[in-house]
Structure to design on (278 residues):
């Protein structure tokens, strides 16, 4: 117990000494020394201290030999300190200031990397995801032969999957709202129609998505439900549309577990359409 207490005291003394040293450097008027100390902090993984020192140094080094390096180091320190919003802005500032600079390629790449770290789950607003996609696409456009190209592409595809899943969740929500027991009223049609439009637009934008079958199922079920809840004047036309959708689904996904659902829908649609076959 006594040994642990002594170790704790030694650690406290060490950290106090480090803090005291940092405070002395921070208050120093020797900017060259402060800059070198900031680089040392970065190398040792003391990113918060590096950020504190480099934030001032970026302004002081502007127009000097270390201008590029100081700005890039600040961005990297912010990135490793997990302040991704600030890092993205600083990387972008570097790339705009030094498009042909020594660290331009890395900065351009890390704009996307920083935004990627802040991407929310698919249920939430995907504005950061769109920003990250655009950043990665810009990187691929500027540096098509970069060694980081493959990773950037993989991240870009993963982000696009996020957007697709967001659209799927939206379409599914519309479908569920349309079929909600307490919601069988004038809003029912608009919910099913919103599901159909959302799913169709997603398939147009992302035709090769892994969720293609799931979107198609929602479209098929929504068209059938829309027909079921239609007024007399629209019912036959909508049952025809639903029947066609069912046949289209079966042709595209003959092994799907939802084929039985499609067959059941077709049988019911025929009672209204009077068709003997497709």
């Amino acid at each position: 117990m006594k040994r642990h207490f002594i170790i704790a005291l030694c650690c406290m003394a060490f950290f106090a000494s480090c803090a005291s040293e940092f405070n002395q450097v921070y208050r120093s008027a020797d900017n060259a020394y402060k800059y070198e100390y900031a680089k040392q902090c970065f190398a040792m993984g003391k990113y918060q201290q590096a950020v504190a020192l480099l934030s001032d140094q970026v302004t002081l080094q502007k127009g000097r030999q270390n201008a590029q390096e100081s700005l890039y180091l600040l961005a990297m320190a912010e990135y490793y300190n997990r302040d991704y919003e600030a890092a993205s802005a600083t990387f972008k500032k570097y790339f705009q200031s030094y498009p042909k600079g020594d660290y331009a390629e890395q900065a351009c790449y890390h704009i996307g990397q920083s935004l990627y770290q802040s991407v929310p789950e698919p249920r939430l607003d995907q504005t950061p995801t769109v920003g990250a996609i655009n950043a990665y696409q810009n990187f691929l456009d500027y540096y098509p032969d970069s060694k980081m190209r493959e990773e950037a592409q993989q991240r870009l595809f993963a982000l696009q999957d996020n957007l697709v899943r967001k659209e799927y969740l939206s379409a599914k929500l519309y479908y569920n709202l349309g079929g909600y027991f307490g919601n069988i009223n004038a809003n029912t049609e608009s919910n099913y129609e919103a599901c159909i439009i959302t799913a169709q637009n997603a398939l147009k934008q992302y035709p090769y998505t892994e969720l293609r079958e799931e979107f198609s199922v929602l479209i098929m079920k929504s068209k059938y439900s829309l027909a079921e809840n239609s007024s007399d004047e629209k019912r036959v036309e909508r049952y025809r549309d639903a029947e066609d959708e069912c046949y289209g689904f079966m042709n595209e996904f003959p092994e799907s577990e939802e084929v039985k659902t499609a067959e059941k829908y077709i049988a019911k649609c025929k009672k209204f359409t009077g068709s003997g076959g497709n």
